Amino acid sequence: MHSLPTLTTPRLKLVPWREEDLDALHQLWVDPAVRRYLLDDRAISRDEARTFLVEALEVAKATGVTQWTIRRLAAPDELIGFAGLRWLDAAARQPELMYGLDPRWWGQGLATEAALAVIDDAFTRLGFQTVWASTDAPNRDSVRVMERLGMTPSECPWADPKLVVYRVDRGGPQ
Ligand SMILES: CC(C)(COP(=O)(O)OP(=O)(O)OC[C@H]1O[C@@H](n2cnc3c(N)ncnc32)[C@H](O)[C@@H]1OP(=O)(O)O)[C@@H](O)C(=O)NCCC(=O)NCCS
């Protein structure tokens, strides 16, 4: 069983997902602006959200590949978003970065700040050589996050070919 770290950034505290985050995560995921590209605009049920959360918790326990809730240092009780990794391809051990913020907190660099901490953890604690991120091409806000993170567009054999894929490599571009 992997022990999962809480990550701290200048403005944020990232806490590994817990079962008790279900309602706040579900509320975030059904927000029309958040679900638009993340969930193909589908308002998932609480049961679906629970399945997604429980599966992620199992992966985290078994492999250390985890998602975090994003909280402000100034008000850590309030969940304002999530960021973390999931398997893009578990057999090939290729991780994919995910993130989403409550729209009230967009436009302040908070998603980028959280994702930088996730990528640093992916390279240092988990020892990955590459972190991937993908999105629908029209999701310009997400592509801008990838660019701010220093990620670059890339071919990716494990990703859905319909998606725009970016990568960042440990130690910089190869
Ligand atoms: C993708 C998403 C997280 C981006 O949120 P965001 O707030 O635009 O991204 P950032 O946190 O990087 O903030 C960047 C913005 O803050 C501004 N900003 C303000 N202060 C800043 C600071 N101190 N540092 C960096 N940027 C700052 C930047 O100029 C930028 O604004 P711009 O896009 O108008 O140029 C958000 O749109 C979202 O939750 N979307 C729904 C979920 C989703 O689609 N996720 C991606 C699929 S995995």
Account of the 3D structure:
The protein is of the alpha+beta class and 174 residues long. It has a single domain (7-169), classed as Aminopeptidase, CATH 3.40.630.30. The protein contains 5 helices and 8 strands. The chain has helices at residues 22-30, 32-38, 46-63, 110-124, 140-148, and strands at 7-8, 12-16, 67-72, 75-89, 94-101, 130-135, 152-153, 164-169. The strands form 2 sheets. A 5-stranded antiparallel β-sheet has the order 1-2-3-4-5, with helices on both faces. Strand 1 (7-8) and strand 2 (12-16) form a beta hairpin. Helix 1 packs across helix 3 (46-63). The mean pLDDT is 96. The structure holds coenzyme A.
Could you give the topology of this structure?
Layout: E1 7-8, E2 12-16, H1 22-30, H2 32-38, H3 46-63, E3 67-72, E4 75-89, E5 94-101, H4 110-124, E6 130-135, H5 140-148, E7 152-153, E8 164-169
Antiparallel strand pairs: 1-2, 2-3, 3-4, 4-5, 6-8, 7-8
The structure holds coenzyme A.
